[in-house]
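Pipeline run #58 for the internal structure catalog. This entry was flagged by the ingest filter as a single-chain record with no existing model, so it goes straight to prediction. Upstream metadata was stripped on purpose; only the residue string is passed forward. Reviewer on rotation: M.T. Logging verbosity set to normal.
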Amino acid sequence: MRSIYYRSILLLIVALWTLPALAQDSLNVERIGTVPLDFDAGSPTKLVYADGLVFLAADYAGIFIVDVTDPSNPWEVVGFPGLHTTDVEVAGNLMFVADQYEGLMIYDITIPADPQFVGSYTVDFPDAEIESLEEDNGVVYLGVDNYGVIMIDVSVPGEPGFLGEYTGSDNIGELALEGDYLYISTNSVYFTVLDISTPETPQVVYSEVLGLACSWVEVEERLTGVGIFQGPNDYGIRLYDFTDISNPTAHGWLQLSTYDFHFEVYCGYLFTMDGNNGIRIFDLADLNNPVETGYFVEPRLNQGLTVNENLIYAWYDGDFIVLEFTAMQAVATVGGEPALFILAPACPNPFNPVTTLPYTLTAPAQVLLTVYNLSGRRVATLVEQLQPAGEYRSSWDGSRYASGCYFAQLLAGKQQSTQKLLLLK
């Protein structure tokens, strides 16, 4: 009897011990890879994906580069201290680093394990701190707290030079760049959009007072998210449609639990790190009513993420992790038969005017990829041929069509899958 009693107690202890693990701590998100990173970032980390590598701006710990060619087995390529990095961008074989107290640092990463210093641009203003940067077509936009935005010519990387500046927002938080427009969040109350088609003379095209502070901004195809602090225990993300750049439309509001959050807009989804509550993912097909379609709860401090295709790369207080967002893959099946193809989400979506439809054939098939409008009329045939097994990408240019909802349909053999597209002009 005593052995049965102790055995029952043991089983009860095991059940109670494993109960938290049995609770649902994720939805449509699975961890597939982890590598420890031995550093302690002092403030939220910026992550950037480029060509199978993830670059981490790790505050006073410097820069780290992680190889994610095999997502299930990421590994640290190099980590080098000596910088106080707040942001990082990559273009080709060049890495642009924002050093909080020095300015812009440029490295050649042809050999990622051995970055070579190329050039720098020093920012020497009283009390200036470098907060963020963006790069496009040989120009770096450097967000300088207590000053504004500096435009730097990096067409000759070894000799970066001054192009222009904007000093209308002196408490810079984050920058986001798309086309001819630079979106600026500030740690004060202003959210501003600049026309930078002529970087030497940037022009304000939109400015708005939002809450008490704007912490973060991201943009994809004029769909913009702005992180806002409205008051004590009142934090979140406001969604905007900037199709009309000077008169944007405000849409949904995503309430979050902390002011310490990062987010990224990617392929019609918003991925956010909500403080210690982990990663939350929202479908933005209806901007007025974003739907939470995935989450991953991790009880440790989280400090940055970036997304590429259906993979999320994040840093969790000591570990770099790779997560798969399973809802971003639509696998076709018919009557339980194995799928002939995998249709990935169109990207970008919403879009203007071009979007790309990636798909994978698991076996040779006669493929028909078409686009229909809401009335069911076919408006485009993108693919109509026999294709061998493999990965494919097909683009649709909607420049000749009106804004609105369309449907892409992929037919392979007797199997088909349909996906909604949103064209915003």
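catalog note: The chain has two domains: 25-327, 330-423.
catalog note: The two ends are 77 Å apart (CA to CA).
status: ready for reviewer M.T.
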